[in-house]
């Protein structure tokens, strides 16, 4: 079956602009999580969505937001971009239940803010 | 606060064993994970261990968990050049049981010399 698909793969934006990234989870997966990866800070959790509701949120400013649609596809938005937002943004999907399940990661969207 | 620490680099010769170490802070973590990231790719789950286990073996991979010292290690037997990648240790935050919200270390870059 198809893996987690993130679009676009690469993006260049200017400071002050906004950007929307998309994540299509594996079919049947209802949980989608977003992470930011930078050389300095490593991988940091942004937020998790499950059944269209934000279930967990990391420690990021309000400029970072997300949503999930009824088909489990998710988008994240970053407004008023700053140079420090340049990073690899990774999305992961899983089918959460009480038993431990594996999360599958997409290849990421590389965002460069200039 | 919650934190996961790893050494940043490890270099080994092909055929040797590699041992990647990790310390974590949250004693209530239910699961601990090892992920692998190859250049330009997302994260791939290698293995995980439940917190009530001391050891888990999966083919060339052996995970050891010392809960008292909050120390996790990943041993790769007969390391191959294809094992060259960045390896991340991760834990679930307090009370979490899914992989929707993980705390990652900064990663250990494994270089395998022929």
Spell the H/E element sequence of chain A: EEEEEEEEEEE
* Span between termini of chain B: 40 Å
Which segments of chain A are poorly predicted (pLDDT under 50) over 5 or more consecutive residues? none
Rg of chain B, Å, rounded: 13 Å
Instruction: Indicate the proportion of strand residues of chain A.
Output: over 45%
Measured distance between first and last alpha carbons of chain A: 37 Å
Largest sheet of chain A: 7 strands, mixed
Description:
The complex is a heterodimer of chains A (114) and B (114). Chain A is mainly beta. Helices cover 0% and strands 53% of the residues of chain A. Chain A has no helices and eleven strands. In chain A, a hairpin with a 5-residue loop joins strand 7 and strand 8 (74-78). Chain A is globular, with a radius of gyration of 13 Å. In chain B, a hairpin with a 4-residue loop joins strand 7 and strand 8. Chain B is globular. Chain B contains no helices and eleven strands. The chains are: A mainly beta (114), B mainly beta (114). The A-B interface holds A 4, 31, 33, 35, 42-45, 48, 50, 55-56, 58, 90, 92, 94, 96, 98, 100-108 and B 30-31, 40-45, 48, 50, 88, 97-107.
Give a concise summary.
The complex is a heterodimer of chains A (114) and B (114). With 114 residues, chain A is mainly β.
Q: Could you list some keywords that capture this structure?
A:
heterodimer, A: 114 residues, mainly beta, seven-stranded mixed beta sheet, four-stranded antiparallel beta sheet, 53% strand, B: 114 residues, six-stranded mixed beta sheet, five-stranded antiparallel beta sheet, globular
List the SSEs and their pairings.
The complex is a heterodimer of chains A (114) and B (114).
Chain A: E1 5-7, E2 10-13, E3 19-24, E4 31-38, E5 42-50, E6 53-57, E7 64-68, E8 74-78, E9 87-94, E10 104-105, E11 109-113
Parallel strand pairs in A: 2-11
Antiparallel strand pairs in A: 1-3, 3-8, 4-5, 4-9, 5-6, 7-8, 9-10, 9-11
Chain B: E1 4-6, E2 9-13, E3 18-24, E4 31-37, E5 43-50, E6 55-58, E7 61-66, E8 71-76, E9 85-91, E10 103-104, E11 108-113
Parallel strand pairs in B: 2-11
Antiparallel strand pairs in B: 1-3, 3-8, 4-5, 4-9, 6-7, 7-8, 9-10, 9-11
């Amino acid at each position: 079956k198809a893996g987690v698909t993130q679009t676009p793969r690469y993006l260049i934006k200017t400071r002050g602009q906004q950007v929307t990234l998309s994540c299509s989870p594996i079919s049947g997966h209802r949980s989608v999580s977003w992470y930011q990866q930078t050389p300095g800070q490593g991988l940091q959790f942004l937020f998790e969505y499950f059944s269209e509701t934000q279930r967990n949120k990391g420690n990021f400013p309000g400029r970072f937001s997300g949503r999930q649609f009824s088909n489990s596809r998710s988008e994240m938005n970053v407004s008023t971009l700053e140079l420090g937002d340049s990073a690899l943004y990774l999305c992961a999907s899983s089918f959460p239940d009480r038993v431990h399940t594996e999360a599958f990661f997409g290849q990421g969207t590389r965002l460069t803010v200039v | 606060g919650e934190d996961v620490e790893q050494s940043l680099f490890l270099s080994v010769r092909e055929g040797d064993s590699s041992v990647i170490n990790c310390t974590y802070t949250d004693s209530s973590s239910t699961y601990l994970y090892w992920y692998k990231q190859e250049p330009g790719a997302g994260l791939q789950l290698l293995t995980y261990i439940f917190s009530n286990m001391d050891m888990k073996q999966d083919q060339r991979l052996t995970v050891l968990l010392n809960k008292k010292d909050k120390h996790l290690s990943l041993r790769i037997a007969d390391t191959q050049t294809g094992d060259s990648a960045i390896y991340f240790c991760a834990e679930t935050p307090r009370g979490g049981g899914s992989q929707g919200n993980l705390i990652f270390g900064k990663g250990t870059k494994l270089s395998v010399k022929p």
